From TrEMBL:
Name of the molecule in the record: IclR family transcriptional regulator
Coiled coil (residue ranges): none
Organism of provenance: Amycolatopsis cynarae
Ranges of residues in domain HTH iclR-type: 10-73
Stored InterPro entries: GAF-like_dom_sf (IPR029016), HTH_MetabolicPath_Reg (IPR050707), Tscrpt_reg_IclR_C (IPR014757), Tscrpt_reg_IclR_N (IPR005471), WH-like_DNA-bd_sf (IPR036388), WH_DNA-bd_sf (IPR036390)
Residues of the IclR-ED domain: 74-257
PROSITE patterns according to UniProt: HTH_ICLR, ICLR_ED
Amino acid sequence: MAEPESAYFVPSVDTAARVLAMLTRYRTQSCTLSEITSALDVSKTTCLRVLKTLQAHGLVAFDANSKRYSLGYYCVVLGSRAQESLDYLAALRPLMRECARRTGHTIVFAQRVPGDRLMYVAKEDSGNPMHINVSVGNRFPVTDVSYGKWVLAFADEAERRRLLANGLRQVTPRTRTEPDEYLAEVARLPERGVLVSRGEYLPGVLAVSCPVLDSGGGLLGVLVALGLSDAVDEDELDTLRSVMREMGTRCRFDGGASGFTA
């Protein structure tokens, strides 16, 4: 539950927000009332009232046969309007489409969200039948994925220590879990401009990433090309690395009408 910051904090609105957030996740996109109340630690009576109110506004849908709740049709409208109103995301879309076309890979944009996690907020498919399928809204710990290293690369020393306080989880056999080696790679990222990872988060998946910066040089998020590792030979990898390094130099949002560097 979110911490109340002032007298204006409304518990029922907080519950509604957490219900919607829960239903955006891939693993909990369809849930029963009991599953929701258990996960959010709220009473069934309160949760049912919130769900029925959200349902009345089209924000939640209810399947009478399965007794499960999922996101409603009006969330499509909200998502579309949000993408249009976020200037940097609207400006990034053409670059993502260009990147998908040039690389033949799925391109995703990940941003940091509360709870020390990254979340996919946008994606572009290349049309390649051999592609990696991801869901916008998926969340994962910053230190679990290779491209989470970009978060640490742009963080101060205190924040780095905090993010690594609980150690590094062995997600796959290729995951780097030795803190000194991990931080050494983090330190090299700004000079390299691109990060290549094979199977660190998901076996058989290649991830090539670059940072997306704001006008002050801070990290807005990470642009990632995802593909099947076995399908990418060294020549193709060199090309992919070159394209993503170029994208990293262009992905600096100036906050104006021009969006990102041309």
